[in-house]
Amino acid sequence: MASSVRIKRIKFHNDGFNELRKAPALVSDMIARGRRMVDAAGGFPKFDVIVTENKSRARVIVVTANADGMVDEQTDRALTRSLDAGRG
Amino acid sequence: MADKVRFPHAAKVILDLLNAELPSGVKAYPKIPAATTNPKPGKFIVVRVVGGTTETLVTSAPQITVEGYAAADSDAYDLCDLAVAIIRSQDGVIRGARGFGYPQNLPDPTTSQVRYTSTGEVRVWGATTP
User: What is the mean pLDDT of residues B18-46?
Assistant: First the structure.
């Protein structure tokens, strides 16, 4: 007969989650995805990658970086189309 | 050998659906109609495929951008919203739309018309071929 285990309490270690969400390997992967998107959209200086970090997580944002990039997104959806380049 | 599963061209399917259901006088296009189009449409919709994934063996999930153009702000919004509603209501080759955002006003520098746009995914069902 299988023995049963009763879980009485689960304690999450939020510091661990925060550490994971800011881990250098994770950030490197996100930056690589962002750079692939920049290349797919039309490259720097039209588009750029911005990396930010707060207490709980790191964040990578791909943005239009100059007027030409903005026009490319407005007329041809260059940045929107680049989303696939950032996938796995 | 495994079955070959083919997927229809999502943009063409959606354009056909929209043009069958839109009110008379409003058409959907794969790109902005040329300035030489006569008469130049006052209101129209543009459908673009901007990416997507193969979701399962029998479904794909293209990402679709729907844009409503009109002279008046409220008309452009209504067009975009109507196009998304038509896409969401489909129950055939395309069934299952998700993630379409609330229509946003995104000015188009190439025209004085107002543009409202929404992007989301549709689920396209494939069919086996010999």
Answer: 89
d(CA B124, CA B7): 7
Domain map (residue ranges) of chain A: 14-86
Contacts A80 to B, Cβ<8 Å: 50-51, 65, 119
The encoded tokens of residue B52 equal 């997507």
Cα separation of B62 and B60, whole Å?
6
> Does residue A1 carry a pLDDT above 80?
no
Q: Is B97:B105 a contact under the CB 8 Å cutoff?
A: no
Q: Which of residues 37-96 of B touch A (CB under 8 A)?
A: 48, 50-53, 63, 65
The ipTM assigned to this model is: 0.76
In degrees rounded to 5, what are phi and psi of residue A71?
Answer: -65, -40
